[in-house]
Amino acid sequence: MEDPSDPAPPGVLSVLEALKKASHDLHSDPKSSAAAAPGSPNAGSPAIKALLELETESDSLLSRDPDLSALSRHLSDLRSLVSTLRKSRGHGLGSFLARRASAHSISRVAESIESEIQAWIDRETVEKLVAGLREKGCGDEEELVQLLSQLEARVLRGFERGLQDLLLKSKLFGLLETTLCNQNCSKRIREHVGFAIAALIRFNKDVFVGQVLMGATIRALITMASVHSLKVLCSLIKSIKSPLVDEIESNGQIPKIINFLSHEDLQVKVVAMDCILEIGYFGRKEAIEAMIEEGLVKKLVELQRSELGGDLIDLGRFEQSEVETDSVVNAGKSKSRRFLESHPFASCVARFAVQLEVGEGLRQREKRAFKQEILVIVREASANDAEAATIVAEVLWGSSP
Q: Which end of the chain is more exposed for a tag (fewer CB within 10 A), N or C?
């Protein structure tokens, strides 16, 4: 005998995705979907046909799962309402009002059907994901990546109480964090796990942020040292702000992030720069001190001096032909932003100083003190007076795209 709690057989998930779309279409336009006369060549749209066929098959497909009893009920109601609507063929006021009432009821029932189908899909997705993450070696990579991507896309659609209850009941977050820290799992799976965790924080920060701050998520992302893991870290800093920066600083992770500026992979260096700018914006005094003591400003001077650096206050050196190379892709972008795409470390000292100046983590007197300290280090680290004068001018006046 089949266990009602078992996951649906392969293929049913995709069928219900199509039925969810059909119910959405019917909810949007109930009259055009169901008003055709029975028996005519146009007796209802594909949406209504699909849903009524599901109602016919409901005994075999839905009865085995008690969580789908409400869906079965709504489908039965839909058949009755469609029948009533199709019988209202007269031209009098009574027939008109009856059609309007039936169409409105069909729209509400179709919305309920869509909601029930989505809840079923959510439950199946989470159950499969939990089962896959619990497997030794993290199970099938392609299936897990697909499920993680589905979860990420689903929670990014916005908060829903029922979905949150499902996620908490399944204890999925703990499994995601365990997988993120499991080096026996492939880096690809762990990176997708990271994106799923970041999506859950955006879904409901109040519920999940504590688990990030108390767990090993941040350490695992930094240890992974990939472009995607650092993008997740940057996203988490933007979402959680100063409390996460405090955690990064207290765990001694800031030197590791700064070291990524010397990484052989350019994209890792670029994303690390993004993380440093976010830390500068949200970081409190202790975090900024840790970055400066680690030699960040001197490193930024070196990067600004490199071929991928430059000065945003002197964009005239950026030839117009280079700007126009990809005019379609760059349409609507500012000149300084286009310059930064090919010179990611341009004016990086001033960009960091600007983040401290406009950020949320420092008091005004701390901002002034750090600005003066940055200027002193710039003068010491510059190769010549001209370089020092340019960077100092940018820091003093601000240089942000």
A: N
User: CA dist 267 to 146, 272, 280, 322, Å?
Assistant: 25, 8, 20, 21
Domain ranges of the chain: 12-117
More confident of the two residues 318 and 110: 110
Give the containing element (helix H, strand E) for 358: helix 348-358
**pLDDT value at 330 more than 80:** no
CA 195 to chain CA mean position, Å: 6
Cα angle 112-113-118, degrees, rounded to a multiple of 5: 100
Tens digit of each residue's pLDDT (9 = 90 or more) over 168-220: 999 999 999 999 999 889 999 999 999 999 999 999 999 999 999 998 999 99
58 within 8 A of 72, measured Cβ to Cβ: yes
Q: Is 242 helix (H, G, I), strand (E, B) or coil?
A: helix
127: phi then psi, degrees, rounded to nearest 5: -60, -45
Mean pLDDT for all residues in the chain? 81
Is residue 111 within 8 A of residue 158, CB to CB? The reply is: no
Q: Is 320 exposed, middle or buried (0-12, 13-18, 19+ CB in 10 A)?
A: exposed
Task: Write the pLDDT tens digit of every residue in 82-104.
Answer: 666 666 555 544 455 555 556 66
**Res 374 pLDDT > 70:** yes
Structure tokens at 300: 């930024």
Considering only CA atoms, which of 395, 368, 374 is closest in space to residue 298? Answer: 374
Q: Which residues contact 108 (CB under 8 A, 6 or more apart)?
A: none
Q: Give the gyration radius of the chain's Cα atoms.
A: 29
Per the CB < 8 A criterion, the answer to whether 253 and 218 are in contact is yes
Token pair listed for 284? 């409190």
User: Which tokens is 321 given?
Assistant: 């032909």
For the four alpha carbons of 171, 177, 179 and 181, in that order, the dihedral sign comes to negative
